[in-house]
Amino acid sequence: MATFGTLSDRLTETFRNLRKKGQLTPADVDGTVREIRRALLDADVALPVVKEFTGKVRERALGDEVNRALNPAQQVVQIVNEELIAILGGQQRRLQFAKNPPTVIMLAGLQGSGKTTFAGKLAKMLEKDGHTPLLIAADLQRPNAVNQLQVVAGQAGAAIYAPEPGNGVGDPVLVARDGVAYATRQQHDVVIIDTAGRLGVDAELMKQAADIRRVTNPDEVLFVIDAMIGQDAVNTAKAFQEGVDFTGVVLSKLDGDARGGAALSVASVTGRPIIFASTGEGLDDIEAFHPDRMASRILDLGDILTLIEQAQSAFDEEQARKVAEKFATDSFTLEDFLDQMQQLKKMGSMKKMLGMLPGMGQMKQQLEDFDEKEIDRTEAIIRSMTPGERRNPKVLNGSRRLRIARGSGMTVTEVNALVSRFDQAAKMMKTVAKGGVPQIPGMGPVPGAHGAGKRGKQAPKKAISRSGNPAKRAAENAGLAAAPAAPTGSGFGLGPAAGPAGGPSDADLAEIQKLFGKG
Q1: Tens-place pLDDT, residues 454-502
Q2: pLDDT by residue (tens digit) across 30-47?
Q3: Three-state DSSP class for 275?
Q4: Are 449 and 436 in contact (CB under 8 A)?
Q5: In the chain, is it the N or the C terminus that has fewer CB atoms within a 10 Å radius of its CB?
Q6: 382 with 339: CB under 8 angstroms?
Q7: Cα-Cα end-to-end distance for the chain
Q8: Strands of 103-108's sheet, edge to edge?
Q9: Single pTM value for the model
Q10: What is the helix (H) or strand (E) element at residue 159, kind and residue range?
Q11: In contact, 361 and 12? CB cutoff 8 Å
């Protein structure tokens, strides 16, 4: 996750040095704790949180649980992971729904923190879970805030209550109260109230938010905080807790490049759990906050569980089973490949998904260089093919490949590369589907796979003369060496050489030219 990139790099480097030591001394522990303290302070984590965190890590690292461990360095990493989970809130906390609908959710926070966008994201997420949310436009101060919420509601496919035009016109407290009553009449089971913010904390802001809370009696008050605002995050959170109080925190803009450590302090300082994380501009870029998974990402240990959940939500189980059967029977086509790419795109950014794999923090440059548009280009090439060509790529001769290249805006070389990669991938997946271990291009055979590494059929020994006469034996061996080997086929697999001097025939040359698009 981009926001915690610097902190993740510093901690990973610290633990890399730690793992080189077979036995830890108190000096090693003190040095490690000192580096962790610097990393947290550089990441804008609040000083009281840093002191408490490093104190617990040092105390546990010098205790018996590390001294008796088989691998003390790994044990210290585990301690840091557990303490990081603790300052992030410990356990995941879900939304609390009212026993008698509607459930009222009020959003609070400074202007520009992402409240309005988050309202649309939350509405879309709740709709997927079978709820019928209603958005209430109670931000009547910021210019065009009502219009923005209307646009977001339309994109999310959610209902909206916006009786006032905003831009300084209307009473937000009355709008919020009447909106909850409207939701009850229209049988909406969730209400999301978008309130006004300010550029800074002031008495007017707090009074308005407190009045809205008083008249609507919300089940959840979510404090939306920008993960990029630095140390002021802690002061802002304390001010809102004292003025309005809130039941949970939403971290927004976690896809930014700020240090973001102050956001880690909010849960610890306020005692309120982080419930959601907003990771992008799209309405699908929202995820439930899991302290253990976030700690794993910061320590570059990956987040496989979230990756699996995203895959399960994007991929159809029945379709996946059919694809597996096609792999096993060698009937997987480019049409199936196109369907798989469509489902892959539903999961979101490839960079984000790859970043959830363990150890990917050490491949940051490769992730940055990854071109998200490569999937779109591949899709364009496949869509430029006819249904028959997708089902049987073997019919793709030179003229067909040239037509596909022109239709997709690509080159013939790129079309050839796609077909070649598809053939290799299909062969590998067929081997995997049958329980084998594929041979990856550029690597040798895997030991123990399909008899690899075992003594196979020995090559035939070279014929030699066994005559007892030395002169005759030398003459016979010279004759055997001079005899040409029997032709077994041309270098292009076109059958026995038919041309003059063992070379390819004119017909073979014409076929080769067609294959490479030169016919």
Answers
A1: 444 444 555 555 555 666 566 555 554 544 444 444 333 334 434 444 4
A2: 888 888 888 888 777 878
A3: strand
A4: yes
A5: C
A6: no
A7: 50
A8: 159-161, 133-137, 190-194, 103-108, 220-226, 248-252, 274-278, 286-288
A9: 0.60
A10: strand 159-161
A11: yes
